Amino acid sequence: MRGGDDNGTPAWIDIPVRHNSELLKAELATLSSTYQDDIEKLNRAWLAAAVSDGVNESDKKDAVLEQINKRKIQYANDRASIIARYK
Fold first, then answer.
1. Does residue 2 belong to any structural domain of this protein?
2. Which among 42, 76, 39 is positioned nearest to 62, based on CA atoms?
3. How far from each other are the two terminal CA atoms of the chain, in whole angstroms?
4. 50 found inside a domain
5. How far apart are CA 71 and CA 75, in angstroms?
6. CA-based, 20 to 30 A from 54: which of 9, 29, 38, 45?
């Protein structure tokens, strides 16, 4: 990165390298946040299906539960992949 010295003359500044532990923590936090948002949306979808009390209520709830289970599996796989990348 370019910066300046005490005299205002251009100089190069070394940016410290982020350690794997920091990168791992940041990626896991992002993954977790995205997962929580997705699950919250799916939970609201399940609740909306439960409240509808229509003929297709059970089918709608089952479809949402299937999406929730797929999302849980995807999260577990993504998490394992991230952890393996930083070992």
1. no
2. 42
3. 28
4. yes
5. 6
6. 38
